[in-house]
Write a structure and sequence with these properties.
The complex is a heterodimer.
Chain A (H helix, E strand, L loop, with lengths): L8 E9 L2 E10 L3 E6 L16 H4 L2 E6 L22 H14 L6 E5 L1 H12 L6 E5 L21 H9 L9 H12 L5 H12 L16 E6 L7 H8 L6 E5 L6 H4 L1 H18 L1
Parallel strand pairs in A: 3-4, 3-5, 5-6, 6-7, 7-8
Antiparallel strand pairs in A: 1-2, 2-4
Chain B lengths: L4 H6 L2 H6 L5 E7 L2 E8 L2 E7 L9 E5 L1 H7 L11 H6 L3 E5 L2 H5 L1 H9 L9
Parallel strand pairs in B: 1-4
Antiparallel strand pairs in B: 1-2, 2-3, 4-5
The chains are: A alpha/beta, B alpha+beta.
Chain lengths: 283, 122
């Protein structure tokens, strides 16, 4: 019997970001409307591996995910050892648009989770006409901090384990143990200070309060889906954000937390498939 | 609930192994009632119920009896399912030297959640 091989293909694309050369790892599967998936802070594109082997998705969508610089198999830029990694709104927006241009994606859908959900809001504010639809998972204009970031990067605490330990409570208790521990494993594998650097965007630079009201959902539909057990970006945070955006659609997902696509793929598809079907119907 | 910690944790070799580098003493406040929990190399050596005169501990977790009751349900409701979910909502105070807590977070979260295995429904 032939071995089971996932229909996911991984390659590297060379891009210049912020004036520096980058070699970015990306994966793709399926055919149809381009769907670019953005992973959470401190993680990588593996979070979407279940979505990328779901025929209900890949029969209609070309699903792509890239590992942000410093994450997964995308190495940091030359000279990284001389500075501190800090993600900014401008750099994050630039890399997503550069990736779509490099891959020649025509009017892609962008789906982002957590920091990816936050930046999706910025895409809706600043570049809506470039996208067919935008989907924010665990997305809000701002969230109240709930721990001291300095614990994430110091020599007397294991960085991988404390990152996993902190985010572990953001998963729903109903999520299957195997998927829970796989989600945490990705957090254990992040480079030193990378999760912390991503959260600079989340907490400091990417505060979108007072800015989301300009989003025009007629130019680009916006869907916001948040898990009921997410207390980092709570359903109330998402609903408060959506209340400022005429036409934004909100779905609160039962028995899910901050990592819906990887913590409980079966439960997540109940919520994401109808959204993808609607986007397809409108295309 | 907390009196059952020694059997719940020490009978779980995976959890004991995860905490094998930790020996410490911490305090848990459940409403007015205080407990001191002694851990030695991942095993719960002793759980002592207060009141105490001049207790020494590295860190303390204090919440209302109601907050802990919901936290210890077999399937806790959203917002009561994690220590930091409670603290973010002002239902749990986390005090003292947090280094042993943060350096052993995956272990200590499961130690404190162990009473959920007793199966309280609501």
């Amino acid at each position: 019997m032939a071995a089971a091989i996932d229909p996911i293909v991984g390659r590297y694309v060379h891009m210049t970001l912020g004036g520096r050369a980058h070699r970015i790892y990306f994966e793709e599967a399926g055919q149809g409307i381009p769907l670019v998936c953005l992973h959470t802070a401190g993680a990588d594109g593996r979070q979407f591996r279940h979505l990328m082997v779901d025929r209900a998705v890949t029969d209609h969508y070309r699903v792509l995910t890239f590992d942000m610089p410093w994450h997964g198999k995308s190495t940091p830029p030359d000279g990284w050892e001389r500075g501190e990694y800090r993600l900014t709104t401008a750099a994050y927006t630039e890399m997503i648009r550069a990736f779509c241009t490099a891959l020649e994606l025509e009017k892609p859908v962008v789906l982002g989770c957590s920091i990816g959900g936050r930046i999706v809001l910025n895409l809706a504010i600043a570049h809506a006409r470039e996208f067919r639809a935008l989907i924010g998972l665990e997305a809000a204009d701002f969230q109240t901090p709930w721990y001291d970031l300095d614990w994430l990067h110091r020599p007397d605490v294991n960085g991988g384990e404390v990152c996993a330990g902190l985010v572990s409570g953001l998963l729903a208790p109903q999520s299957p143990a195997v998927a829970r521990w796989e989600t945490l494993w990705m957090y254990m594998q992040g480079g030193p200070g990378v999760f912390k650097g991503d959260l600079h965007f989340y907490r400091v630079d990417g505060d979108l309060r007072g800015k989301v009201g300009t989003i025009d959902t007629k130019a680009c539909p916006l869907y916001l889906l948040t898990g009921e057990y997410d207390y980092s970006c709570s359903p109330e945070d998402t609903q408060r954000t959506a209340a400022q955006i005429p036409g934004a659609e909100v779905v609160v997902m039962n028995e899910l937390g901050h990592f819906p696509m990887s913590e409980n793929p079966e439960q997540f598809r109940r919520y994401i498939l109808p959204v993808l079907e609607r986007i397809r119907a409108q295309s | 609930m907390l009196e059952r910690l020694p059997e719940l944790v020490n009978g779980d070799p995976v959890l004991v192994r995860r905490g094998r580098f930790l020996s410490t003493r911490f305090l848990v406040g459940v409403g007015e009632t205080e407990y001191l929990v002694d851990i030695r190399e991942g095993r719960i050596e002793r759980v002592e119920r207060g009141p105490f005169v001049m207790p020494s501990w590295r860190f303390a977790l204090r919440g209302s009896a109601e907050a802990w009751r919901k936290f210890w349900q077999a399937v806790p409701p959203p917002g009561h399912h994690d220590l930091f979910a409670l603290s973010k909502r002002g239902l749990l105070a986390i005090e003292g030297d947090l280094h042993p807590l943060m350096a052993n977070l995956l272990y200590l979260k499961d130690v404190l959640a162990a009473p959920r295995r007793l199966g309280a429904r609501s």
